[in-house]
Amino acid sequence: MDYKFYTTDVFTNKPFNGARIPVFPEADGINDNTMQLIANENNASDTVFVLNDEQPNTKRLRIFNASKKEVKPATHTLIAASKVLTSLKMLPLDSQTPLYFKNNQQVCQVYVTNDGGEPGLIIQSQQTRALIDHFVPTREELASMLSLIPADIGFDQHQSLIVSCDVPYLIVPIKSYNAVRAARFDMNAWSHSSAPASIAHGILLFSNNTDNNEADFHARLVGPDIATHEDPPVAPVMGHFANYLCQNPNTKPGTHIFSVQRGANDQRQSMLSIEMDNKEDSQLTVRIGGSAVITSVSTLLV
User: Fold this and answer.
1) Is the Cβ–Cβ distance between 4 and 26 less than 8 Å?
2) Structural contact between residues 27 and 10, judged by C-beta atoms closer than 8 angstroms
3) Structural domains in the chain plus CATH codes
4) pLDDT at residue 210 in the model
């Protein structure tokens, strides 16, 4: 059969920026093995396959990545699917009408703003509960595993923490944008660190020095499963990051709005809009939003 798919750039309003996510809007009939083969062929961070559902304003999603495994929906894949499906009028474009995406027992809710008849800002709301672990490698060990110097680690009362929202990530504050970009993950130093860093799925580096960019923070993921040249989407870790910021004594109760940039200035950049409701309790509501553009339409012959 022939299957049409749409390539989206997510968390950007400019083509050839953001995260490149292919979306198959009518994937009923594609089996698991073929989905994985297609994801391998696309070689994108994730490929989204959309299937029909009997409930109104609802679709089922299957997401495969080029690492040969199926993954759960994350904000960047939900935005990609929402952009394509509302553009094709397969789901309603009404900022007051939630869209629902199912994946096994998980149901994600998304809102899409109407920008002159076209999808505008796309927002996913998350209810998060985080476990915080303060037992992390020393500043010297962190610097070693990131190929930096100890003076590069930490700023503005931010401390390195392991934050777990389902899966744990080590979050490390870095003093400058240049140091975030210069960091190189050292597997040997990681494996010999003095804290249980090996339980973390990766390391989120962030700085509030975004090299004259309009964002409040610059962020980058590194780790044992991320190649040195890769700069993967950070959206799956934004719930962790919001909970991390709430640990800082400078973060007062109330609603906070901030933006996060991903990607070097000379590469594919993403811009994420984050809103969180800090009530200083165990549950934190986080809203992650962004734009997307469709850059190509193709037909796969399988």
Assistant:
1) yes
2) no
3) 2-128+290-301 (3.10.310.10), 130-268 (3.10.310.10)
4) 75
